[in-house]
Amino acid sequence: MASNVNPTVRRRRLGQELRRLRELKGMTAEEVAERLLVSQSKISRLENGRRSISPRDVRDLCGVYEVEDQRMVDGLMEMAKASRQQGWWHAFGDIPYSVYIGLETDAESLRVYEPQIVTGLLQTPTYAEAIVRGGSPESSDAEIEKRVQVRLRRQERINADKDPLRLWVVLDEASLRRVVGDSNVMREQLEHLNEMAQLPHITVQILPFEVGAHSGLAGQYAILEFADAADSSVVYIEGVTSDLYLEKAPDVQKYSLMYEHLRAQALNPEQSRQIIADIAKEYARGSGLD
């Protein structure tokens, strides 16, 4: 989806502009909330793009900030209208990580560390179904199918003929050896992983067990970067009941440095493809296909 119709990115850019206007006025989010008789958390969510923003919200905020240029006010209100459009993912109903999907859809590059499973953008349909079913045993078959279809739809970004998402993935060896589904599912998944790893815009590195302690022990995270200079990089950390988005420069720099250490400790891409192929052969023998 083009960035000019991505509601998540529109909200994010609008929120950044509203934050800039507030800071120019020298006001805190708490002061603005008191003036508008709303919660401080609402102002924060509007500014970080996590909440849908209405033209009325924009008008009220511009009033508080004493914005005299009516063309600017009108332009921001138009952005608010556009930000309320629906992305492709809304057709699937309530998706818990819809904010992330919106960012991923517009990202130019993505760096991911996964300690437990093969990352979603590189999953096969059968592996994805087994992951979703195992992680949400209480979900209905219809809900599981919906979540799998969303995951497969997300993969269009890395399969696009024009400007595909640049993807760099560091996987812990555990993600290759954890049997998801059965041996056939794992063999198919690892063979697919190696095929994808040979594409010029995708790099896969494996962090072997022998490395021991490393900077990724705290868990999974992703770093999204965007082509537009106005869009700052985002660190995404998935949670069980809520997700965390870090956009402040020191936080992004910290996670970027951690990622550089992971890449340095991991096997190089060629060595990684070899260990993936070797483990795939082990699964083939286990399923009687060798």
Automatic annotation (TrEMBL):
What PROSITE patterns does the database record attribute to this sequence?
HTH_CROC1
Q: Name one Pfam family in it.
A: HTH_31
Indicate the segments forming the HTH cro/C1-type domain, all copies. Answer: 18-71
The protein's name is Helix-turn-helix domain-containing protein
